[in-house]
Write a structure and sequence with these properties.
- By secondary structure, the chain is mainly beta.
- The protein has a single domain, classed as Beta-galactosidase, Chain A, domain 5 (Distorted Sandwich), CATH 2.70.98.10.
- It is built from 1 helix and 25 strands.
- Strands 8-9-10-11-25-21-20-13-18-17 form a 10-stranded antiparallel beta sheet, with helices on one face. Strands 7, 12, 14, 19, 22, 23 and 24 form a 7-stranded antiparallel beta sheet that branches. A 4-stranded antiparallel beta sheet has the order 1-2-3-4, with no helix packed on it.
Length: 303
């Protein structure tokens, strides 16, 4: 399990490799994961830190440097995006290597007094534990929720699926449909990119900007591709009694022209006392095969 300091696109970074996967996290700003995939293979993450990077309209009159990769945002409880969401993350951070992984930390937000970090631990050749951490370093109480966003690059055969329900009697699901938000969207509730299956919600990206949020007790979203023979899955705990933004713990965003698809997981909102931290734990798994587009097939493949 080699871990070494590197420069990624001219930015200070750390690289972790196993026989089945490679992960690069930058800490020259961020922190962000910039590269994830099989060693010697393609980067499954969108990454753009070029001289002319992509800027997106975060809100009317506000442009934000996307960059991509995996990042930790802070949601405000009932709302996912708010005025504090797009705070500048250009400041340099820190990196600490430990026996089975590493931690990359960001700069302290001077207004909220919150600090974000990403801690990685190897669980096996094909799986990682990723802790998205928020720490309150101020003197006041802070209401905050963690929001992990992973920007992926879909290919022509790529599909995304979210297993629905918990498999018990009186089973149900909740799907939040966005027609428009902060200058984005289609202005229509009709959507041809998502399909409801027997036990999963399946996304076939067709280049039309859209956003969906789902209450998914399995806490699982996956990207699978039969042409490239892989399945990338992110799983996180779900608390049935907790409050999530939009009543949902899983979300996906399709960018215009399929330039990216965001796989998103959200933690419940919490009240952070000074000096306390909040951890949103994910398990990342990279399988060397595609799975069928059902919740049962995905759960069986992940074990």
């Amino acid at each position: 399990m080699p871990i070494r300091a590197i420069s990624h696109d001219g930015v200070a970074a750390v690289e972790l490799t196993t026989p089945a996967l490679r992960l690069v996290a930058v800490h020259g700003f961020g922190p962000r994961f910039a590269w994830f995939g099989r060693p010697g293979g393609d980067n499954l993450l969108l990454w753009d830190d070029s001289a002319k990077p992509r800027y997106v309209r975060a809100a009317p009159g506000k442009d934000w440097k996307l960059r991509g990769g995996h990042r930790l945002w802070i949601h405000g409880g009932g709302a996912d995006e708010n005025e504090a969401t797009y705070r500048n993350d250009d400041a340099p951070g820190t990196c600490e290597v430990h026996g089975d992984g590493f931690t990359v930390g960001g700069a302290l937000d001077p207004e909220t007094r919150l600090r974000r970090s990403l801690r990685v631990r190897v669980l096996g050749d094909d799986r990682l534990e990723v802790d998205n951490i928020i720490v309150n370093e101020g003197d006041m109480l802070a209401g905050a929720g963690p929001w992990g966003l992973t920007c992926t690059v879909p290919g022509p055969a790529t599909r995304y699926l979210v297993p629905l329900g918990d498999g018990t009697e009186w089973d149900s699901t909740t799907i939040t449909v966005f027609r428009c938000w902060a200058g984005h969207g289609t202005r229509s509730f009709r959507e041809e990119q998502w399909e409801l299956g027997d036990d999963a919600y399946v996304l076939t990206p067709r280049g039309k900007e859209t956003k969906r949020m789902v209450r998914a007790p399995r806490g699982l979203i996956a990207m699978t591709d039969p042409a490239r023979q892989f399945t990338f899955a992110i799983r996180c705990p779900f608390d049935i009694d907790a409050a999530y933004p939009g009543a949902a713990n899983i979300a996906a965003y399709v960018g215009p022209g399929n330039f990216m698809v965001e796989m998103e997981t959200m933690g419940a909102v919490a009240l952070l006392k000074p000096g306390r931290s909040l951890v949103h734990r994910q398990e990342w798994r990279l399988l060397p095969r595609a799975v069928d587009l059902t919740g049962a097939a995905l759960l069986a493949a992940l074990g």
